Input
Amino acid sequence: MIRINMTQLRLVIGNKNYSSWSLRPWLALKQFGVQFEEIRIPLYTPETASKLQEYSPSRKVPVLLHNHQIIWDSLAICEYLAEEFPHLHWWPADKTNRALARSISAEMHSGFQNLRQNMPMNCRKKLPGKGLTPEVQKDIDRITSIWQEFRQKFATEGDMLLGKFTIADAMYAPVVLRFITYDVQLDSISKKYAEAILELPAIQEWIQAAKNETEVLSQYEF
Ligand SMILES: N[C@@H](CCC(=O)N[C@@H](CS)C(=O)NCC(=O)O)C(=O)O
Output
């Protein structure tokens, strides 16, 4: 049964060590200074299905609960937040740049399956070289070509993909954490962008919380 008694923003997430989709809206909320309550449901336990069922129509995380509304799926949640708090500029103000930001966000949301499958997010671990198949390298090459193109284009406007932090950065932040875990070799521009993401206080907070978690999901450990 879906709980409908809700007036504040609440974000339902999975394990911080493993749930890359949860990190995306969580990071965007933190970056834009929006207060929210966090509901963490550890994934793949005997209780997970019944707990997810309480909140999530898709039985997946993340889910946002706000003003009697349930919004699920990371990108839909970010889009909802952008409409709900427009003064915070979750997307670039310029229409052309907004379309670019949306294009790379959608590309992340619907693609890079080889990377996702072979290099699952695991903030606690260091697994240099693991999972690096030729198909994964193709995903990495596409991601770093996006980072290079955007960082060169918006170099004078800030350290993030389109200068200031936008939803596009929230979408790519988990990739930065994967690149660190698997020690993926990066060109200098991509390395600098990865470092800028890693320096965000909210990312540090997430990593620290992930390290404090005790659940171990064997399917994401090699
Ligand atoms: N397209 C969804 C993907 C959500 C997703 O796959 N979430 C995973 C955790 S990262 C999940 O809830 N898995 C639980 C399950 O599949 O039972 C999004 O963008 O939010």
About this structure: Residues 1-6 have pLDDT under 50 and may be disordered. The two ends are 36 Å apart (CA to CA). The pocket of glutathione is lined by residues 14, 19-22, 43, 59-62, 73-75, 109 (CB under 6 Å). The chain has two domains: 10-88, 95-207.
